[in-house]
């Protein structure tokens, strides 16, 4: 999943902050539980679990990121 994010267009890279947790660490396991995820891979945007058990198509991921960015920045 991390590779899917790393190859996003630069315009998308500029508006996101990426955090990747390793499931072999206490912090990773804790974050997985906080998101109430049940399987890997899991993708959360803005602290909300959006995809679980699959890697979204790049177009779908970009569309979701853009939509959330636009909603957060309305009227700015």
Structure, described:
By secondary structure, this protein is α+β, with helices and mostly antiparallel strands. The protein has one domain. It has helices spanning 2-6, 10-13, 26-34, 58-72; strands at 42-45, 48-52.
From the spread of the alpha carbons, the general shape counts as globular
Average predicted local confidence, pLDDT: 92
Total tally of structural domains: 1
- How much strand content do the residues show? 5-15%
Oligomeric composition of the shown chains: single chain
Q: If strands are numbered along the chain, what order do they take across the biggest sheet?
A: 1-2
| Radius of gyration from the alpha-carbon trace, in angstroms | 13 Å
User: How do the helices and strands follow one another from N- to C-terminus?
Assistant: HHHEEH
Structural class: alpha+beta
Unreliable stretches, pLDDT < 50, 5 or more residues?
A: none
Number of helices: 4
What portion of residues is helical?
40-55%
Number of strands: 2
Q: In this structure, how is the largest beta sheet organized?
A: 2 strands, antiparallel
Query: N-to-C terminal Cα separation, in Å?
Result: 31 Å
